[in-house]
Amino acid sequence: MKRILTLLAAALLLASCAEDRSQILKVYNWSDYIDESVIPEFEQWYAEQTGETVRVIYQTFDINETMLSKIEKGHEDYDVVCPSDYIIERMLREDLLLPIGRDFGDTPNYIDENLSPYIRACFDKIEGGDKNANDYSVGFMWGTTGILYNPKYVTDEEADTWDIIRNPKFADKIFIKDSPRDVYSQIILKIHEQDLAEGKVTMDQLMRFTSEEDIAAVEAYMKEASGLVAGWEADFGKDQMVQERGWVNLTWSGDAYWAIVEAREAGVELRYRCPREGATVWFDGWVIPKYARNAKAARYWINFMSRPDIVVRNIDVIGYVSTSCAPEVLDAFQDDELDPIDLRYFFGPDADSLHCDPVLYPDQRVIERCTMEHDWGEQTALLLEMWARVKGDNASSWTYIFLGIAAVAVVVVLALRGRGKKNRKHRR
Model's pTM, two decimal places? Predict the structure, then answer.
């Protein structure tokens, strides 16, 4: 028995010695949110820059809160993760992040060289107590929330207001993201449209309107819409739009872009816009959690992910828009067949007439009526309860149909994964 215990102790000691965390980088990211072929390239690049060896352990998550719980409650030792804006805000306030720093020795600082000034200004607005989010996070991808619509059935004017989701003309042709935070933020802007016009309140202030009265007002509005909704969706809405089973989709710009491209190949025209009342922008960014055990390699990972050629490759695979304003990124998105738009806010003072897709890069006039969401803190539970009441028992036949074929869909997705060029959804 004594011999067995001795052998067990020796095995445990060898296992602990074998895992030299200075040679391991644990990355926790959204599913399908980078070109995974860059991982071995990072390992080689890190060795070239530092003279040290590192091996990446790459894991993925599908929900912000899953990631947060593992770090906040489980004290998981992930070295670098990629949460959304409101989670970055929460992690800052709860002292769950380490500063990133910008000292890379002789290695170029790709972070500060290429981060868009617009993104930097938005991260300045993240409420982290006495901490500035730009010191603790670096933007990765971003986008807007708006209306995807089929102009065969919906006019531009009808799609230019959030009221379209309450328009009985489109009953059973409306799909809405099953994302209470994103929907609430748009509707609170609609409800206070007059106050905004009269200057009584700002869009940024409205993102903090989370009282019980505000939640009740949004709930009443959404209950008027719920009977018209064909499905509350996480991903299938864009497919229904491509197949013309849906005419209206409250969705994210990345999903909208994917649907527009797919629909064009099928001979269907789709359009996307941020309604006149205002809309929200969202961001995902790299951070180093408090319990990280290899912060050095984490900093180099973030710097590597900001390198222009890596940025372009990630964009090409996942189909979303980077926070980088590097010339190489702009070159990748320029298309002379598109009408020129004003993108000075993102690419700088000379970018007043660029031929880029406005779904991915909103024009200056559109971005001026966009704002950021914020963490709800203790009010989050009330938001989720409200959302459950809104959906209630009004799940349409579409909802049940898609639930019924979910297993088949999973099999198809798994079979197709890894084939060809991919445009992946963003999970908020």
Answer: 0.86
